[in-house]
User: What shape does this take?
Amino acid sequence: MNELTLRERMAMDRQVMPEQAAEQRRSNFAEVNLGYTPELAILEAQRCLSCRRPVCVDGCPVDIQIRDFIDYVADGDFPSAADVIRADNSLPAICGRVCPQEDQCEGACVLDKKGKAIAIGSLERFVADYQRLNTNRLVDSVPISTGRSVAVVGSGPAGLACANDLAKLGHNVTVFEALHVLGGVLSYGIPEFRLPKSIVADEIAQLEEIGVTFSTNAVIGMSDTLDDLLDEEGFDAIFVGVGAGLPRFPNIPGENLIGVFSANEFLTRVNLMKAYLPGSETPLYDVTGGNVAVFGGGNTAMDAVRTALRLGAGKASIVYRRSEQELPARLEEVVHARHEGIHFQMLTNPIEFLGDNDGFLTGVRLQEMKLGEPDESGRSRPIPIEGSEWTEPLQMAVIAFGNSPNPLLAKTAPDLAHTPWGTLVTDSETCRTSKQGVFAGGDIVTGGATVILAMGAGRSAARSIDDYLASGVWTIEEESPDPDHGAVGD
Assistant: This one.
C-alpha cells in the first residue's frame, strides 16, 4: 500500500520514460520509447493521489479502472494490475503506446493542473509489457458458447475490441479482414518505431485464445455482401468496423505525378509491405539525400515524415497551413520529430506540384498563409496571402490531409444509411445502423479519430449486440455525426 504522505507524493517528479537517442533512432525503425523499468513504474505509480473519485476514468473511452491498477503497480503487484486493465481494455500494450492520454485520462488527472499528470499511458504500457514478457497467457477458460454467431468486418481497433467483448460473452465471433495481415490501421498505418508489429500480433493472439476466428483476404462487399453474411453464412449479427481508409487529396495541379503519395499508400508500403527492405515487391523509389515534404499536421503526417527521414531523406519537412499552435498531432510526436531533425514549415500551403516530361515530381509551388477567424472546427481559418508564392525542389510529396470512408459498402449495401460524407448513420447509444442486425462503430461512423475512441465504440457495440441477440428487438434513432471529425490530418 502506498504509505507516502500527500505532500510527499505531490512533491515527486513525473518519471521520464527512457528512449533511444535522437541521433541514433533517426536512422533505424526500432521503437523510440523504451518503456519503464519496474523501479520507474513503481515510483511513478506512487505519485498517484488515489482520489476518492478518480476523474481520470471519466477521460478513458473504455472505462479502465485507473486508480485500482495504479495502486497495484505502486505495490509492485503487476499481475493484478494487468487483470484490472484487461477487464476493460483488450489492447493495453497498443493503447499505452499510441493513445493521446494527454487529451483523455491524463488530461483529466487532478495533478495535470500542476503540469505533471500521472503517466497513465506509460504505466499501462509497462503493465501490458510485463504481463507479455513475464507470465503465461491469463486466459482462464473459453466461455460457454451461447450458440449465436457474430461477424465482425474489419480487424482494426474497433473490430478487435468488439470481438473481444463478444467472445467473452460466449458468442461465436469471426473477424473478416480485407488485407492479408490482421490489425487494420494498427498494422498498415502506424510505423514500427511507434508500434512494433509483434505487439499487435501478440494482442491478436490473445483474442484467438478465447475463441475468436480470423479470416484474412476477405473483402466484404466483394467476396461476400452483408446480406450474404446474414442470410447464407448464418450470422445472427454483424459489426462493421472498417475504418476510414480513403485518402483525401488537395485537388491541385500535379497531384498525379510519380512521387506524390497519399500517406495511406506511403505508410502501407513501408509498414505492411516492408518497402524499405532490399528485394521488396512494392518498393518506394530511392529518396536518399533528397527533399521530402509531408503536407498535413496530424499524427499520420508525423508518422510519414519521420518514416521518410529513416528512409534516408536529406531533408524531411512538415508543411502545414496553420501555425504550430494548431497542430493536431500529439505533442510527444512533435517533440520527437523536432529532436530527430524534422523541418517544420508553418503557415504554408501547396498550390501546384511540378514535374518533368516523364511525369516525375520535381518540385512544389507553395503559398504563404495567415490566420483569420475560427472556422467550424474551432481553429483559426488559414487565408492565402496574395503574391507570396514561391517554388521549392522536391523529390517526394506525401499528402496527409485525412481520410474518408471507403465507398464500397455504400455501393453494395444500399439499404445501409450513409451521411453525405460517406460515414454510416447509427444510433449513438446502441451503434445500430438502418439495417436490422447490422451495427457499426469507429472511424466508419465518426470519420478519422483515435485508436481508443474506436475501441470504445467497439465495446459499446458489443453490449448492444448482446442485448439484441438476447431480445431480438430492433429499434433505432438515427443521428448523423459531425463530418469534421474526419479532418484529423489537416
